[in-house]
Design goal:
Helix content: over 70%
Radius of gyration: 23 Å
Shape: globular
Structural class: mainly alpha
Strand content: under 5%
Number of helices: 17
Largest sheet: none
Length: 376
């Protein structure tokens, strides 16, 4: 019983239980609707793992979600709720698209320029929210929601403007090819590249049939950076102190307002980086007219909660989320069940993650019961 209690106290246990509960609820809903849960989950996993290109697409899908999750998780560690990751992502995409279209330098200059433009735009968007919080005490949730909509309409305005709107489409002009961050974009379609890939079926499938790019490598590097900043630096100690107790941090001589602004700058930069990776790394390499939010930022909220706001955990939670979103399409295609079942599953997982406080209490009760039995 004591061993069980120790296992239950581990944070990963709560996450695993939440995931299992998510699948269980999805199975119940599928069965109630007249579908075979085993067939549905078989289609889900087949749509994730059965082909190399599927795995590649899952990773591509997970990249922006992982980065926006890092944005949310980082802010949360400092006691801020960055619900504005969606707006920071959108404004980052606008900036990356415009710079990538207007500039056409060699890739060694163009790619960093386009990526950093998205990062800078996202940082600015988040920094304004942080400034309003620090200077005037305006809650970040209120300003984030408003700034999400402002970014939404700025994006649509840019797309519809005569200077950037591509005729006979609902999108802006794409970035120049020198902005692309896909793996070997020119070589893989050349005669030499096709000749080499001819003898490597799996590699050919991944390179030619997916937009495999450097994005997830960047996401992993960003997660390591955030972890090291939070837990291996003096600034990270200050930031976490602000998140734990602002009054105590202020009493200790830490500038709370300054750290709030810095936090939102970094959080916004991470969301902007997510947008840059999508614009430079995946087709169609441009922004389109938005009829609703794309949810890359809002999905980051769910991933951050599933990860327990752990920077490294965001990598694995992002892959889980990306797999569910991409593989979920196979459920509808193969057995006719609505793909919305995946949203039910994700919502259930997040719900049970929110109940993580119950698990440690259960562990304590088991420990007490074990001690009581031992005393007998």
């Amino acid at each position: 019983m004591e061993k069980t209690a120790k296992i239950l106290k581990k944070p990963i246990t709560s996450t695993i239980i939440a995931i299992v509960c998510g699948f269980a609820v999805a199975a119940i809903v599928l069965a109630a609707a007249g579908y075979n849960p085993s067939a549905a989950f078989g289609a889900l996993f087949s749509g994730i793992f059965s082909k190399p290109k599927y795995i590649s697409n899952v990773i591509i899908k997970a990249t922006p979600i992982t980065l926006t999750a890092l944005s949310v998780a980082f802010a949360y560690k400092v006691g801020l709720f960055n619900i504005g990751a969606e707006g920071q992502y959108i404004i980052g995409a606008v900036a990356a698209n415009l710079v990538g279209y207007l500039c056409n330098f060699p890739p060694i200059i163009q790619i960093p320029l386009v990526v950093l433009s998205g990062v800078a735009a996202g940082a600015l968007w988040g920094g304004i929210i942080g400034f309003l919080k620090a200077k005037f005490g305006i809650h970040e949730v209120l300003t984030s929601i408003m700034f999400n909509w402002i970014a939404f309409y700025i994006s649509n305005w840019v797309v519809s403007s005569a200077r950037f709107h591509e005729p006979n489409s609902t999108a802006a002009y794409p970035v120049n090819p020198s902005s692309y961050t896909m793996l070997l974009p020119n070589w893989k379609t050349s005669d030499a590249g096709l000749a080499v890939l001819k003898g490597h079926k799996a590699l050919r499938e991944v390179l030619l049939k997916t937009d495999v790019n450097f994005g997830f490598v960047i996401a992993i590097a960003a997660a390591v950076f955030v972890w090291m900043l939070l837990y291996r630096s003096t600034k990270g100690y200050e930031l976490r102190a602000v998140g734990l107790n602002r009054d105590a941090a202020e009493f200790a001589g830490i500038s709370v307002n300054k750290n709030i602004i810095i936090t939102m700058l970094i959080a916004g930069a991470l969301s902007g980086l997510a947008a840059s990776m999508v614009i430079t790394g995946t087709d169609p390499h441009r922004i389109s007219t938005l009829s609703a939010f794309e949810n890359n930022g809002f999905n980051g909220l769910s991933v951050a909660f599933i990860a327990g706001s752990s920077p490294i955990g965001c990598i694995f939670a992002g892959l889980l989320f990306g797999g569910l979103l991409y593989g979920g399409q196979s459920i509808q295609a193969n057995i006719g069940a609505p793909s919305e079942i995946i949203n039910i599953m994700i919502g259930t997982i997040v719900f049970f993650v929110a109940l993580t406080a119950v698990i440690p209490k259960l562990a304590v009760r088991l420990e007490k019961r074990g001690m009581h039995n031992a005393a007998k």
